[in-house]
Specification:
Layout lengths: L10 H8 L7 E2 L16 H5 L4 H14 L7 E5 L2 H11 L5 E4 L6 H8 L3 E3 L7 E5 L19 E5 L20 E6 L12 E5 L1 H11 L6 H11 L2 H24 L6 E2 L3 E5 L3 H10 L2 E2 L1 E3 L2 E8 L6 H7 L1
Parallel strand pairs: 1-11, 3-4, 3-5, 5-6, 6-7
Antiparallel strand pairs: 2-8, 7-8, 9-10, 10-13, 12-13
Helix pairs in contact: 3-7, 4-5, 4-6
Amino acid sequence: MSKPRDHGGGLDAAIARYGGDRAGWLDLSTGINPVPYPTGDISPNCWQTLPDIAAQDRLINAARAFWNIPDTAHIIAAPGASALIAQLPRLLGTPKSAQIVGPTYNEWQAAFENAGWAVSAAPTDPAVRITVHPNNPDGARAQHDMLADPGISIIDESFCDTVPEASLMPNFDGENTIFIKSFGKFWGLAGIRLGFAIAPPALVEKLSDALGPWPVSGPALEIGARALLDENWANQTRLRLEHDTQRLDDLMKSSGAGPGVGTSLFRLYQVDDAQAWQDRLARGHVWSRIFPYSKTWLRLGLPHPDKWGQLEAAL
């Protein structure tokens, strides 16, 4: 069994230590939209039969339109971006060296190391470069010219749907670029497990073989296509998230934290003692994210519109 990795979540452990129950806790440890896309009615057929080709095609076509994916790129849907991250290192040929500039989302390093790759922040002539754009946890953005470097570039844009104008998708070169997109974060539906890889055709074929038939459930296919086609919801959601981000930054500043950085799905704050801040918030049944490599970083997701009072009281 692999070693558990540091992530957001862990609410059960927080409840065991600080008391209460899930209904009374405000979990801000992840960067998931607290107001999810309204799934609406799901066709009974989605639950009763294996997903058909037409449903898969509708989802892929909706994804291609939403992300303005070039015709030279192929797309595959998977049961979450994490499933794609786990598969990619084993499908990119003989393990060599990979560059991952951190700190960033730690599943990338774990996946490549588990597949035998040598991972470091600044290797000589890396065969693969992984960039999380915008980065998690600090929101840093990659430069548009980075794809000009030799080797394979993997761009994880799981948090880019809040700022679609910043996407590096126009830089897709058709040969050495792979994009990862996550559905659960911006649409607030992490539980349906849906992610996408945009890549050269040969790699998409390998991913398809690795994932097997019907990798995405019928309900996820239907909800995903519906959501990706709903541009009005996406636009209104970006405006709400921007407003709530400013509100959170103002609240944290007034409570003694440094300026917030990140995205409009999560904010990272410099504080004097991150563990002490987490303890204080947890006593008010608000769960936050701290990091084993920093004693002063505190990350918060956005509260649901009905839960701001609980965060204010905890602070």
